[in-house]
Design brief:
477 residues, alpha/beta, Rossmann fold, 9-stranded mixed sheet, 6-stranded parallel sheet, 20 helices, 42% helix, binds alpha-D-glucopyranose
Length: 477
């Protein structure tokens, strides 16, 4: 079976968020199950290609805006990403990912490359990701290609809009596309909506999110359309790259620790409880927090995005409930909205021994935090899947999370973490208090939960198996 992934980002070449991790790991896991997977993405000027083998493999022309545009295709392989990646180069549209036209052009280029057999790879299925590749399913059908299409929704909050004129540039008849009333009235093409309508199968990155998005609260205006197409909607939980992360774990964590029955791993390591204690001490010192192992240390790692990541209730909880008598410590790591950064900074100014703010993207510090914190807070308002909880659990840190989306599917309340059902600072704090009580007074139970968390199977192998079943079903149709 041949599958071509189309996406706008892929770690380690170019990464903006969790999508980049998925596009690095899932193809690799699928190829271990015997699928011939390749990835196609735009060749931005800023791609990180060090350590990769790059070869020019083809050249072609793509008709866009009534002009033939020169396109060169490179093939790269990297030891982390493993599967071959085709990079599509065009100086005018693909050098920088600035506008929606970048993606209109890219989508057309991908379909033309398949149609004209420009590369030596004709996929059975093209697997598209998010709005950037949302026009591909329609363009495939419109070209009468026998290729099936799958669209994965990583986050409905980003839909990708472009003036309807882009259709003329793509040489598409509006009537063929059957635009929605909304698109005609606003004169804007919604890439994600078009992808949902025309893909053969639509997936979300967790089962719970696939149900939530049928409701107004999470559907971001697409709930009606999604309900119409629910027969082709599936939810598959993402995974984490255990090996990749273990590798990083031992590279950056000062006191690596493992479950006793994982002794076969050849590295030197500490027992879990001791390792966590030493790492916490190290982190408290490094960040200038009060050096005291009896104070529970809570971490938040994530984008500073108040619409999704719950930083509003996080801030309110710290300010209103948690810092009264400085019995809690917080380490915050992430960048984003400057207004929110300033508000968190204010907390640090008042309580420098209890709050540490790090407004950077720092994978090394993230690893140390995962290993050192007692708990990780994930108060997201919505979360299609979420990676942080799985990484934290692999590092023996219990998540305290809002019961939504992929958080619901990966965390079992009171078994390997804590879930709170209602989105509020108060509920978040009450759940923290419960968790701290067990941490202080019932160590046996706390470490039982840590063990359960570390043992969870979040491997990509499991997810890849589910995708493979879906691909098989689709091809058999
Ligand atoms: C988006 C979602 C996140 C998900 C990631 C990868 O970033 O917000 O929940 O984990 O995509 O699918």
């Amino acid at each position: 079976m041949k599958v071509l992934f189309a996406a706008w980002e892929m770690d380690p070449y170019f990464k903006v968020g969790g999508l980049g991790d998925v596009v690095r790991s899932l193809p690799n896991a699928l190829s271990q199950l015997g699928v011939d997977v390749r990835v196609i993405m735009p060749f931005y000027k800023s791609l990180k290609l060090e350590g990769s083998l790059k070869k020019r493999v083809a050249k072609t022309e793509v008709l866009y805006g009534k002009k033939l545009q020169k396109v060169i295709i490179y093939k790269v392989i990297n030891s982390l990403a493993k599967v071959p990646v085709y990079l599509v180069q065009n100086k005018k549209y693909l050098d920088v990912a600035t506008s929606q036209e970048t993606f209109a052009f890219f989508d057309k280029a991908v379909v033309d490359i398949i149609k004209n057999k420009v590369i030596n790879f004709i996929p059975d299925i093209i697997h598209c990701h998010d709005h950037h590749t949302g026009l591909i399913p329609f363009l495939i059908k419109n070209s009468n290609l026998k290729v099936k299409s799958v669209l994965t929704l990583h986050n409905l909050a980003y839909q990708g809009f472009s003036p309807v004129d882009v259709l003329a540039k793509l040489s598409i008849n509006r009537s063929d596309m059957r635009l929605s009333k909304w698109e005609i009235n606003s004169r804007k093409l919604n890439f994600l909506l078009e992808g949902i309508i025309h893909a053969d199968i639509v997936t979300t990155v967790s089962p719970t999110y696939s149900k939530e998005i049928l409701k107004e609260m999470y559907g971001m205006g697409l709930e009606d359309v999604l309900r119409d197409y629910r027969h082709k909607l599936y939810g598959i939980l993402n995974g984490i790259d255990i090996d990749y992360n273990y590798l990083l774990h031992f590279k950056h964590v000062p006191f690596p620790f493992l479950e006793p029955d994982e002794k076969d791993r050849a590295m030197k390591h500490y027992p879990v409880a001791e390792g966590k204690k030493l790492n916490k001490q190290f982190l408290q010192q490094q960040l200038g927090l009060k050096n005291d192992e009896t104070i529970p240390l809570f971490a938040f790692i994530g984008r500073f995005d108040a619409k999704q990541k719950g930083i509003d209730i996080l801030h309110k909880m710290i300010r209103r409930y948690a810092l009264k008598n400085e019995q809690y410590q917080f380490v915050i790591l992430g960048t984003g909205d400057p207004d929110w950064e300033e508000r968190f900074d204010w907390l640090y100014n008042f309580y420098p021994e209890s709050v540490s703010c790090n407004f950077v993207f720092d994978t090394k510090l993230a690893q140390i935090i995962y290993a050192a914190a007692d708990f990780i807070l994930i108060p997201s308002k919505f979360e299609p899947c979420g990676l942080i909880q799985m990484l934290a659990m692999a590092f023996g840190t219990l998540p305290i999370a809002h019961k939504v989306g992929g958080l619901t599917d990966s965390i079992k309340n009171r078994v390997n973490g804590y879930l709170f059902p209602e989105y509020s600072a108060k509920k978040l704090f009450e759940t923290m208090e419960k968790a701290v009580k067990i941490w202080q007074k019932d160590k046996i139970n706390h470490f039982k939960m840590i063990k359960a968390a570390m043992k969870e199977d979040f491997s990509w192998r499991r997810s890849a198996g589910e995708y493979l079943d879906l691909y098989k079903k689709l091809i058999a149709r």
